[in-house]
Amino acid sequence: MSFKGVDFFELDSLYSEEELMIRDSVRDFVDTDVMPVIEQHYLDGTFPEDLTQKMADIGLFGIKTNEKYGGAGAGYCAYGLAMQELERGDSALRSFASVQNSLVMFPIESYGSDAIKEKWLPKLATAQAIGCFGLTEPDHGSNPAGMLSVAKKLDGGGYVLNGTKMWITNGTIADVAVVWAKLDGVVNGFIVEKGMGGFSAPMMKGKHSLRASITSELVLDNVEVPEENRLNISGLKGPLSCLTQARFGIAYGVIGAAMQVYESSVNYTKSRKQFGKPIAGFQLIQQKLVKMLTDISNSQLAVQRVGRMLESGKYRPQHVSFVKRHNCNMALDAARVARDIHGANGILAEYPIMRHANNLESVITYEGTHDIHTLILGLDITGISAFE
Ligand code: TGC
Ligand code: FAD
């Protein structure tokens, strides 16, 4: 039976027909193509690479990108709903799509030279090319301003890049990397292409979370890139503007994971009997289900509002921090409670619980940890920075 969604407040009425159509096509894809294979990929620690073409075919890459580059030219809420459905399948697939859309196509479209846009956007939209985004370094995660990667201008034109990036989603399989490095002490973005001399992207191993996602190092050892591969933005606002896009998609995405663990919990508690009756009949269980539904519904309302604010251009990045922080925390809590509700069965691959719970431990950390978003909002409230 296909997924019906969790919609206590009849929120479908807040979306256009086109937005619901996009959501439903991703929902069908997840039910048909993702659910049957994802647990095994998670257990094996493999990314389902064979699904990327189908994802492109249903328009999952370049959802907001201009149609002239092969995108769908849709709005933020359409993008968000697509991420929600994908993450109901697995955070790894949503991560893949977040990176492709928000962290690679967005900066190329916003800041790339015409040559770079024409070269990469159509290929990224059709999954002929895969992208990655290299900001984090081994010793600079929450504080990317301290990055050590450097770019130097070459006398004959172009730049030479040196440095190491870590925790880079899609790195090993990427054809193109958006890499951030300091040029004369200021953060700048560069397009690094697979096969460029001195560039390698070894896979990171041993993860207990996001096991169906590829996570890599990026090693830049005197990599030469031409002038046209430098993005037309300087300062930390370059990468942070990309993060605003991706964080919004995550805030929608994690609702999908929460919906999945909630639905499984409702079904499980109705069929699982203890002390002579279904556990759904115990007050403590009902209280947990009510909290999950309340939290999911609040998160849905908040993120839809932020989506419309982004579409109107009347937003501040702090609005996005609010929903990234709140919704990731909500989904992780829901997954942990669902694990409890499923008892011992909650740790089995037969149920979509532990996988989501483990994945969400990464999702609450990447794109700005829960506490970094707390500090962003704390600064917004008080006007006093507590970062240092
Ligand atoms: P700060 O002085 O606050 O800002 C520097 C400049 O940037 C502007 N700005 C933003 N612009 C757009 N969007 C935002 N969200 C922005 N936030 C700030 C700001 O106005 C300023 O502009 P200007 O013109 O004055 O220069 O910078 P800071 O160094 O104090 O840093 C602030 C802090 C700590 C909040 C920031 O560094 C931060 O957000 N840290 C968290 C790092 C992070 O999120 N890393 C994510 C790496 S990528 C990733 O995780 C991908 S996971 C992909 C997946 O698999 O889904
Ligand atoms: P740290 O910054 O070392 O933080 C450790 C702890 O200290 C956290 O609890 C944090 O909240 C806390 N802390 C830090 N600073 C402060 C402070 N000022 N006040 C109070 N507490 C503080 N990065 C990319 O660039 N591209 C990617 O594609 C990408 N994909 C990822 C995929 C996965 C699976 C994971 C796990 C990470 C990925 N990341 C990626 C990296 C991610 O963005 C970072 O892990 C994240 O920004 C946190 O950095 P850190 O891990 O170095 O933690």
What would your notes on this structure say?
The structure is a single chain. The protein has 388 residues and is an alpha+beta fold. The protein has three domains: 11-125, Acyl-CoA dehydrogenase/oxidase, N-terminal domain (Butyryl-Coa Dehydrogenase, subunit A, domain 1, Orthogonal Bundle); 131-234, Beta Barrel (Butyryl-CoA Dehydrogenase, subunit A, domain 2); 238-382, Up-down Bundle (Butyryl-CoA Dehydrogenase, subunit A, domain 3). 50% of the residues lie in helices and 15% in strands. The protein has helices spanning 17-44, 52-57, 76-89, 91-111, 114-125, 237-271, 283-312, 317-341, 354-363, 370-382; strands at 131-134, 150-153, 159-169, 176-183, 186-193, 199-200, 215-225, 230-234, 273-274, 277-278. Helix 3 runs antiparallel to helix 4 (91-111). The longest helix has 35 residues, at 237-271. The mean pLDDT is 98. Bound molecules: 3-thiaglutaryl-CoA (TGC) and flavin-adenine dinucleotide. Flavin-adenine dinucleotide (FAD) binds next to strand 1, strand 3 and helix 10.
